[in-house]
Structure formats: C-alpha cells, structure tokens
Design goal:
194 residues; alpha+beta; 4-stranded antiparallel sheet; elongated; disordered N terminus
Length: 194
C-alpha cells in the first residue's frame, strides 16, 4: 500500500476551500416541497467534516432558476460529501422537484460572490463603466438643475442638505431604471470591445 499523503505535504490547491456553484431549475408549482428539500440538504451537509456553509438564491422572484453555493474546507472533504450515500439519497428525493442545469467548482473567495455566467463576456473595465455613468448622469443632472431652478425659484438657496437629499432621491431611481439601461444599451458595442 503506498504511503498516505499528509495534509502538510498535499498540493496547495487541495487544501484551499472549494466552493461549488449549482444552477437548478425548480418546479415552481411545488415551492414548499422544494424549500423543505433544500433545507434538508443543507442540514445534512452540515453534519459532514469540512462543511463551511451554503446559500440559495433565485434569479428573480418569478424565476424557476435557483443558484446554490456550498463550500467545503478542501477538495478531500468536498469529495467525501459528494461521494456520500447520504447526498445520493437526498438528490434522489429531489429528482422530481429540481433539474440541474450547470455545476461549477471554484477555489477562493470569488465563489461566494460571482454567479457563474457561462458564455457571458466579463464586465467592461471600470473606466468604461465610469464614462457610461457620467454620460447618463451629466445631462440628467443638468436638466434637473435647470428645471428645479425654473419651477421652484430660490430652490438652490435652500438648506444644502435638503436640496442634495431631494435631488438624489429623484435622480437615483431615474438613473437606475430609465437612463442607465438606455445608455448601456446604446453603448453596448463600445463597452464589450476589448
């Protein structure tokens, strides 16, 4: 029998925490059952050595696509969970509730924050994002400043905190839901160009 490799001698990649990201399509007519099944899987994984946590999120409120992340201390503990009979039984119980559409393993902290996007190009560089925001915000801010000065004489002589508060309360949703989507659609070829 060959000698066992100690944790100290194991390759560094095998000792890093490993995050598994799974996208599942869920039967939306059986959400209470799905929720119970999901929680039972989390409870079960929690009994295994090396389990560091998990989380589930839906793509949108009305979406049938759910994303799950779970994390183990290293490859060995993850492999033990994934090869376990307990997990196989749990997956079998959920066979009519969910359908796996994508599985991805990641090491490092990024696995907790980045949703996997197969086939989707990376985000544009920050400087392009900043230019895009400015191109939307500058004209909107200019129009708002002139409009409020015209419609409400003395507006800009009000208490600065009140004017900034009201201005940002009006402009933030306008930018987020109307102007920025329009500007990013318009600039899409430039934003995606390397």
């Amino acid at each position: 029998m060959p000698p066992q490799e100690s944790d100290r001698d194991a390759p560094q990649a095998h000792r890093l925490p490993v995050t598994v990201s799974i996208t599942r399509r869920v039967d939306h007519t059986r959400l209470p059952e799905v929720t119970r099944w999901v929680q039972s899987g989390v409870n079960l994984a929690n009994t295994y050595d090396g389990f560091l946590g998990s989380g589930w999120v839906r793509a949108r409120h009305d979406s049938d696509e759910w994303h799950m992340l779970y994390r183990f201390a290293d490859t060995a503990t993850l492999d033990a969970w994934e090869a376990s009979e307990d997990r196989a039984d749990w997956l079998y119980e959920g066979r009519e509730l969910v359908e796996v559409s994508r599985v991805e393993r990641r090491t490092g902290i990024e696995g907790w924050f980045d949703e996997p996007q197969a086939g989707v190009p990376p985000a544009p560089p920050r400087w392009k994002q900043a230019v895009t925001i400015w191109l939307g915000f500058f004209p909107l801010s200019l129009v708002f400043t002139y409009a409020t000065g015209y419609l409400i004489p003395g507006w800009h002589q009000l208490w600065p905190l009140a004017t900034v508060l009201i201005t940002t309360l009006c402009l933030t949703p306008t930018m987020t839901y109307l102007l920025l989507p329009f500007v990013t659609r318009t600039l899409q070829p430039w934003l995606r160009r390397s």
